[in-house]
Design brief:
single chain, 583 residues, alpha/beta, Rossmann fold, seven-stranded mixed β-sheet, 19 helices, 23 strands
């Protein structure tokens, strides 16, 4: 046995490896991305980035049906995309074990909402486990495969950002010797015609009844009793760690590790031992609602604790102990706000500047380019979910009055277009729309950490792979006006967007330039401001490049951060921004 310090995500991958997993399919999404990246480091596991989470879960389900142990990882909003196969996979069950690792994002660090995936596990009637540290990430994932095969169900591992991205000690074990099961044709199990689905629905009821006994008597839910404790606490995951830190031996704990189904008898017995029991959980009152539904009344939950955001040890102590005052550091000076910005040299920056100048309605999407909505660019009007930009742009275009019609464009990244944008473009063409879709092709899935995608010509291992030809794809859909432009040829790009936005038929503009953070991207010499020519008009500041600043009245360009993209140079009317001459 070997000890390692691992991220929770890395420990999930380790547990899957130890369980004999041979297939993993995912779409990157913070905070879950590192699970699949870590899995790809094990030569015995085939890994892939799928076009979206629905495809990933279906591929993993296919591997399971063929008898292999498989995994699919996603963030909480990715589970929305995968919900269709999930609910029916709960009916069909599995052959080889199937685990879905789902990472929620309390406080919305890198997402568009704060949904609670526990509701999906309850609604779909699958078994779900929630680890409280990296070692439990490994152990729960490893054990989940045995549960999956024993109970004939997909099993979920529910993570949150603080577990996914925190490190702790893991006891690594040798991988199990797992013999892949034989594929057996079974129409009654895998063909979900209504007649078969009705039978499998009865199976689900029996399965969850069996699993309820496991929740009450198995190893996943534990009581930690302190004899002098006056109060009880029921909690799960990282909140158990916070509660222990805040309350210590002043409370006894029911630590929930199996969150679907929840332990009925165990929870009832625990609550009878204390006059007052606190249920500590972020987001929805999932455990609290269950406790009240089985007749437990001496509980305090979201009447005391916030219904949004993340908790902390300080918050728990403040709410329960009352006299606790968390340490609150106040800086001596007010610190300036530091909102996220597009990187120096980002190919999205000149595009958004052009869109702002043209006063277009811009429906946006999920990715780095979401930052185009922030000052000083202020060039996006909406961001809802993956692919929504294309469909929403079509809807806006269809209902605006013709006599006062403002021009509408949709912006979407190359990876996001493949994920969910293609069907929206089909809708535009099929239903007589006239929208312009701008695909920002930076040759990567950028915001989640530069993963490959089907349009960039590499697979998850960095090996050459067929690249989707976006121009040919759009033409095959039926778009006749498709043009590719370089965002750093600013005037040409500006004119093309103006012409396509005014067109009376659908059009696609592919704005193509690789992300400057990719290791194989060449960077030009940095620019500098010749102060004798600078008229202090500050036009270069309007593109929001973090390399450009004003200090003591002078406009300066950071020579380390600048990538030489020439976006600012193209804007300067006085020729004051030039390539820095070598020393």
């Amino acid at each position: 046995m070997m000890k390692k310090i691992l991220l929770g995500n890395e420990a999930v991958a380790r547990g899957a490896y130890e369980a004999g997993v041979v297939f993993a399919s995912s779409y990157p999404g913070t905070p879950s991305t590192e699970i699949t990246e870590a899995l790809a480091l094990y030569p015995s596991i085939f890994c892939e980035w799928a076009p979206n989470e629905k495809v990933a879960v279906e591929a993993a389900l296919g591997a399971s049906m063929a008898g292999a142990r498989a995994l699919s990882a996603m963030k909480h909003v990715g589970l929305n995309v995968a919900a269709d196969p999930l609910f029916t996979a709960a009916y069909s069950g599995v052959n080889g074990g199937l685990v879905l690792a789902v990472a929620d994002d309390p406080r919305i660090h890198s997402s568009q909402n704060e949904q609670d995936s526990r509701n999906y596990f309850y609604a779909s009637k699958i078994i779900a486990l929630e680890p409280a540290d990296s070692e439990e990430c490994r152990l729960f994932t490893r054990n989940a495969y045995s549960l999956s095969e024993e109970y004939d169900t997909p099993v979920a591992i529910r993570l949150v950002t603080r577990i996914s991205h925190s490190q702790s000690i893991v006891q690594c074990e040798k991988p199990q010797v797992y013999e892949q099961k034989k594929y057996r044709k079974d129409m009654s199990k895998y063909v979900m015609l209504p007649v078969n689905a009705r039978t499998r629905r009865s199976f689900i009821t029996k399965r969850m009844t069996r699993a309820q006994k496991l929740a009450d008597n198995g190893p996943y839910n534990k009581e930690i009793i302190h004899k002098d404790a006056k109060i009880g606490v029921i909690t799960a995951g990282v909140l158990y760690q916070y509660a222990r830190e805040a309350l210590g031996t002043q409370a006894s704990y029911l630590k929930i590790g199996m969150i679907s189904p929840l332990p009925r008898q165990m929870m009832t017995d625990f609550c009878q031992k204390y006059q007052k029991v606190y249920i500590i959980e972020e987001l929805d009152p999932y455990i609290e609602t269950f406790a009240r539904s089985i007749g437990i009344t001496n509980i305090i939950g979201q009447k005391l604790f916030p219904r949004e955001g993340e908790f902390s040890a300080g918050l728990i102590a403040e709410k329960i102990l009352k006299n606790y005052r968390p340490f609150n550091y106040q800086p001596e000076k007010d610190l300036p706000p530091r909102p996220p910005v597009l990187c120096p040299g980002c190919s999205h920056r000149p595009l958004f500047y052009a869109l702002k100048r043209q006063r277009l309605i811009v429906t946006g999407d999920i990715g780095c380019y979401t930052l185009g909505a922030l000052p000083p660019l202020l060039a996006m009007d909406s961001t809802i979910c993956m692919g929504a930009s294309v469909s929403m742009g079509h809807g806006v275009n269809k209902v605006l009055p013709n006599d006062k019609k403002q021009k509408v464009v949709s912006v979407i990244g190359d990876s996001t277009f493949i994920h969910s944008g293609i069907t929206g473009l089909i809708d535009i063409v099929y239903n007589g729309g006239t929208s312009t879709v701008i695909i920002l092709d930076n040759s990567t899935t950028g915001m989640t950490g530069h993963q490959t995608n089907p349009a960039c010509g590499q697979d998850i291992y960095g090996k050459p792979a067929p690249a989707v030809n976006l121009e040919a794809l759009c033409r095959a859909i039926g778009v006749r006006r498709v043009i590719t432009v370089n965002p750093f040829d600013y005037k040409h790009m500006y004119d093309v967007i103006a012409a396509e936005a005014a067109a009376s038929e659908p059009s696609v503009v592919i704005v193509k330039a690789p992300c400057k953070l990719l290791h194989n991207t060449t960077k030009d010499p940095p620019r500098e401001v010749e102060q004798t020519l600078c008229q202090k008009c500050r036009l270069c500041m309007s593109i929001g490049c973090p390399s450009i600043s004003v200090q003591e009245g002078q406009t300066l360009i950071d020579q380390v951060a600048c990538t030489g993209c020439q976006a600012c140079q193209n804007l300067c009317r006085f020729g004051a921004i030039k390539e820095k001459e070598p020393l």
